Amino acid sequence: MDMPTTPLETEVESQQDPGPVRAQYADFDGITLESGVFLGPLTVAYETYGTLSPNRDNAVMVLHALSGDAHAAGIDEQGRVGWWDGMIGPGKGIDTDRYFVICSNCLGGCKGTTGPPSTNPATGRPYGRSFPIITIADMVDVQAMLVEHLGIRQLHNVIGGSMGGMQALDWAVRYPDRIKSAVLIATTARLSPQGIAFNWVGRNAIYCDSARGSSSEHDQAQPKTARGLAVARMIGHITYLSEETMEAKFGRKLALRDLNGYRYSLGENGKTEGEFEIESYLEYQGTAFMRRFDEDSYIIITKAIDHFDLESIYGDLTRAMENIAAKMLILSFSSDWLYPKTMSLTIMRALQAVKKDVSFVSLDFPYGHDSFLVKDAMPVLGRIIRGFLNGVSATR
Amino acid sequence: MVSARLVEAPTPFHQFQVGFNIIIDLITPGTRVLDLGCGSGTLLQRLRDEKDVEGCGVELDQEKVVRCIERGIRVISLDLDEGLEGFPDLSYEYVILSRTLQQLMFPERLVREMLRVGSKSIIAFPNYGHWKLTLRHLATGRTPTSSTYPHPWYNTPDIHRLTIKDFRGFVSQIGGKIEKEIFIVDNASRHRLLWPNRRAEWGCCQISAV
User: Fold this and answer.
1) What is the pLDDT of residue A337?
2) Catalytic choice (A336, A344, A370, A371)
3) Of A106, A223, A83, the residue nearest A163 (C-alpha)
4) Angstrom distance (rounded) from CA A286 to CA B121
5) 3-state DSSP assignment of residue B72
6) Band of the pLDDT at A325, cuts 50, 70, 90?
7) In order of start, what are the domains of chain B with their CATH numbers?
8) Domains of chain A: residue spans and CATH
């Protein structure tokens, strides 16, 4: 499924409109997963922005979170703006005039990289729930294959938030000579039981969806209308926001009013539409997600997040950190209660214990876990990331 | 109009150049240096450029931390009153606490931590024993202000007022040893000074665990 290469390499002026960004695809024979299972063939969807330097030493790999995809920046052919467009671009935090930026859809995803919606060559049907269990390390291994495929020996930087931050940390631990620096945003070396609990409830919403059985046995012709995934997303969204943001953005405002401005549907039992604005917001987010995401990808990826635990693999977090050679930057948000500051501090202290080059910035944004995606946070985040990336080239 | 926000250092940067010079002179090139309350990284940048040190700053103020990162200075967001948990024993050759001692809630706890984390610690603090302050205190009966203690008592980050003698006693009480003492008088550094407790505006001491 090789697509023609984008005109990025021939691009002269970044000010010129480069046109819509297009996904590219890399094909591999397969990968032996951490579980020992062989998964193949393997396709990786990715996008690139900026130009690779002749020395191939200016590549930055951006790692998306649970619901993200390869479309990180620019506008694609459907007119969609990338999920981190505020950070990636000419003159932005990750400056595409300087850096060659790569973003790939993670293994197990549903946006072009091999995942549950992909066709299982053994059956000729989608993997669905028969897709093998994958780990964060498997996702990173696939990213490393892509980087090698692009002919890049060492990345200038890997950067990611939330699950992407887990991957960035795993990169630093297991590929010490393949990256010069890593930025870990709102992440952890192991998810809290509280986080696992929320993910479990989300998966349960999908499992309990009475309308559908296992999608691997399901008739593909039937459109996906599973509400379970929408509910899972609503639960997720609550955990990504802070109480303060919810109060500021929605308060107790009612969404539904009749023509005279009176409250509508109040007390009408059995009505399923949301009445408060927060409800209609979650409804909107859930429904939109249901349309664009795959429920089996959601299951497999949240499981990978839940099982990520560097401490249990290495017995001790400091031991995991011993091999790290990259310059590290850890960012955490004071309002993030899903991946709280203490988790970032744990990583920072483990790195310090073995005298690694680590910086730690605690940011007072009110937007919760999702702060790194919020527009208002971009100016400060951009300054930090631009400064850090520039500093990596300098000595010490 | 009184602002409740206290973010400015008690002495403007240009006035403390001499203090920075003293600290830089004390530091052996190529060593590891931890600067507690590093502000926006001015001292660490000079130490990197002039002494090739491997520096790291600790700072609470978000904007200053961001400026450190922009300068390519390693920095950690931390409240010094929470101590230096996670910093391994003797992991730095020098730990600096410049113009911050008098602002800590618990100076003893942090200085003990400094002696644990660094082989040597350098502490610069404003001397409240200076004769002008004492005289003003006697004459007016009020808490005086000066270039070293510029804020009135009711709105100041300088919550402790200490003298050179106070500091000497404190260091021996916590089991430390003063290795070097340098004073600032009229914006000049003095390695020897008669009656420093009355004449020095600033004290700058290198201390270590006994």
Assistant:
1) 97
2) A336
3) A106
4) 56
5) coil
6) very high
7) 13-209 (3.40.50.150)
8) 7-192+307-393 (3.40.50.1820), 196-300 (1.10.1740.110)
Q: Work out the angle at residue A260's Cα, subtended by the Cα atoms of residues A256 and A265, and round it to the nearest 5 degrees.
A: 35
ipTM of the complex: 0.90
Picking from A239, A231, A237, the residue whose alpha carbon sits closest to that of residue A209 is A231
Q: How far A39 CA lies from chain B's nearest CA (Å)?
A: 41
Q: What is the pLDDT of residues B72-129, one digit of tens each?
A: 999 999 999 999 999 999 999 999 999 999 999 999 999 999 999 999 999 999 999 9
Residues A316-353, buried b or exposed e (16+ Cβ, 10 A)? ebbbbbeebebbbbbbbbbbbbbbbbebbbbbbbbbbb
Antiparallel, parallel or unpaired: β B202-209 and B176-185: antiparallel
Distance CA A372, CA A160 (A): 9
Whether B72 sits inside 8 A of A391 (CB atoms) is yes
pLDDT at A274: 74
Q: Give Cα separations from B185 to A60, B11, B181, B193, B200 (angstroms).
A: 51, 14, 13, 9, 5
Residues in A closer than 8 angstroms to B78, CB to CB, are 360
pLDDT of residue B4: 41
- What confidence score (pLDDT) does residue B15 get? 59
